[in-house]
Each structure stands twice: as C-alpha cells, then as structure tokens.
Amino acid sequence: MKINRELCDICGSCVAVCPVDAISVSEFCVTINQDKCIECGNCQQVCPAKAISGVNK
Amino acid sequence: MISQNYDIVVIGAGPAGSVAARFAAEQGARVLMLERDREAGIPVRCAEGVSHAGITPFIEINPKWIAAKIDSACLHSPDGDKAYMYNNGTGYVLERRIFDTELCNLAIEAGVEMLTKANAIGLEYTDEKITGVRYKHFGEIKIANCSIVIGADGVESRVGRWAGINTTLALNDIDTCVQYTVSGLDFELETCHFYFGKEVSPGGYIWIFPKSGNTANIGIGISGDLAADKGPKAYLDEFMERTFPDAKVNYTVFGGVPTAWGLKEYIKDNIMLVGDAARQVNPITGGGIVQGMIAARIAGQVAADSIKAGNQSRKFLLRYKKEWDTRLGKAQKTMYSMKERFMKMDDPKFNKLVQLCKSIPKEDFSLKKLFSVAMKGDPLLVAEIAKAFVISKIK
Predict the structure, then answer these.
(1) What is the ipTM of this complex?
(2) pTM over cut 0.80
(3) Cβ–Cβ below 8 Å for A27 and B36
(4) What CATH number should be reported for the domain whose range is B70-88+172-258?
C-alpha cells in the first residue's frame, strides 16, 4: 500500500482498521510498514482523504 | 537516557485523557500526561456538538469555549421533507481548541504534569510487566516509569496494540468523515441539522452544527464498508453544491469515528484504555466527548485507588469495566444493535419518520408525544429509530 503524503491529513483512520498493526502515526506523518502489510486494502477504503492506493477493489 | 518516575502515565490529552489524568491526580497520584501534538485540541477532528447535561459534571460552563447554544434538531428526510425536534435539552457547539485546553488546565491545577510534542513510541516492560512508557520529546527518547498506563490516544490508538489488545475496527464499525468549516452562510443559530438518505450519506448522515450566524461545521460520516467506490468528500461536495453553492470553505478536516459498541478487552495488568481508543463512542450519533469523559473519570479514579492499594492487576482494574458497564457500557450494546437496524433502513422509512415528527406541533413536542404519535402511525419504526435519535441526544 502507498500513501500520498500530500493528500494525507494524518487522521489515523487507517491505523484503526489495519488488522496487522502495520501502520504507525506521528505528529507529521503516517507510515506503512511494507514488511507487515498484507495488502487487504482496508486502509485504502476508509481513508477519507483518498490518500492511500495499492489495491484494486 | 533520561527516566523519571510517576504512578500513572496518560497518553493523549484530549477530553478523555485530561479527565482521566485530573481525577487520578485529585486522589493524590503522580500523573504524567503526554500529548503528541504541539498543543491539546489541535487539529480539531470533531463536529463539536455536546449536550449541556453531558459536560457539566466535568467542567463549569464558560462562554469562551461555546460557539453556539443549541435548542433543537432538524431532521431532513431523503425526499426533502424536514421536521424540528425540541424539548430535548440544551446543547452546545464547542470551540474544541479552547475547550480541550481548559480541560488540560484543570488537570494541571490538580497536579498533573503535562508534556506536549511528546510522542509515545512504546511501552517499557520489566519481567513481562508494563513498567513505563517510552516517548520522543524534542528529538530525545525518554522513559517515564509508572505502574499504570492509561491509553487515551484516540481512534488511531496504538497503545492498546502495544499491550496486545486487539483494537482493530471492522469496516462497518468506523465512519469515514470529512468536515468543512464554512462561512458566508445565513441560517438559524439554535438548530443542528441532520440529513439522511442512501444518496446523501450511506450508512451515516450529514450534519450542520452552527458556530455563529454565518459560520458552521458541515460534515459527513459514511460507513466504512460502503466507502469503496465513492468517499465521503464526494458526497459532501455534492451536498454543498446542492444546498449551499455560495458557501466558502474556511478549512477542511478528515477523520474516522468508531461506531463499534466498545471493545471486548480494554484492561490488562497495568494498563487501561479510555475514550475513542476504547471505542467508547455512541455508535449511532458518533458522539464521543461525553462518553469518553465519563469513562475517563472512572478509569482515573480506579487508577488512583489501585496505586493506594498497591495492586495494579487486571483483576483490580476491572472495577473500571464494572462501573462503565453499569453507567453506559450496557447501553452501548443496545445502541449498537439499533445502529445495525438503522443501517438496514431504506429511504422510505426515513421519509416516514420525518413525517411523523412533523405531525407534532412545535410547542407540543416531547418524547412522550413523539412516541404516542409514532406508535399509532408505525410502531415498528419507533422501535427502530426514534429511540436512537431522540434519546441519544446530541453527544
């Protein structure tokens, strides 16, 4: 999964739906740990800013 | 590495965090509260509506954090009809940035030590027991030793995950939201508006919370499982174009609101979760400020008691769960089952509800009246939604 940081508002919705705890968030950015990510697409679906891509649902 | 000793470390300085910290400190506990951002209450990710009755136990009403006083709600049906509801108690639209800061001030007055720009990055363990919090503060990694951690780190809570608590929300248990704070409008100050319908806001609603005569928070929440093809912003933009084509958007905020009934597990040895982190949000309205504060007060007091008793076991801390269940936890499950039914409701049902509400004269409006009218008109509908929307008030 890829995050477009220009669109990301750091709201944390993606973190809440990640089933494998692959996403972390700081004051400045959201980071997806690609080694943990299972590409389920949950984060992409709930992202209100449409900042995440990678899965064709 | 710098390390300091406390009894309790609270992670997150929103309403839940600062209330938990305050009530623990009032009982004599040494409390540190960590806030990731540079100040509490910012950025505001909230529609900012609360009920008077809900917040008065926690803070004295002060005009400086009240943007508008609300005395009615107006429901808009998918077919364009609308109905006003009164006699539901006073509500407020807050200025969260000021409100949250005031709550922090109360915590600090009670003896809480607060750090901003302090990003918690992990828990410290000794012999498999939580003994502290690791955090970054101005580029430096520090450790705060403590006997209890209270996770109040919001919808994105990671504190629970660090402790092995499963906080993952299913897609139908999160609303994906966008809110515009707009100006250039002209509308009634005392009324909150809610718009429903499959085409308007699938599995959720659009809200208008006035902040002054010409500014308002206008936002949308749609159910996460219905957001695959079209996101909340697309729906909100259509609504704005239809309803307020001349409105100016001052700022935009994105966010997620948990709409689960709660969490199965949110207490373990030496750790408790509160507020959005524990999914203590009204699953129908999405309101979480008052819910979070109620839970946080219980958690703060139980944490302080556990320090006095020298016992931070899960078993001791379960007093928090017991009290929360009595106070609101059980009601949350009822609300959740109503949410599930509400999600299945079609547009004609919403139209019917609004018709029923409308048939009651304004000055005569009361819960009792609504129920009696609705019982005659469509008893099933009463069971399905009237309760949910009217009883839950604006939270």
Answers:
(1) 0.95
(2) yes
(3) yes
(4) 3.30.9.10
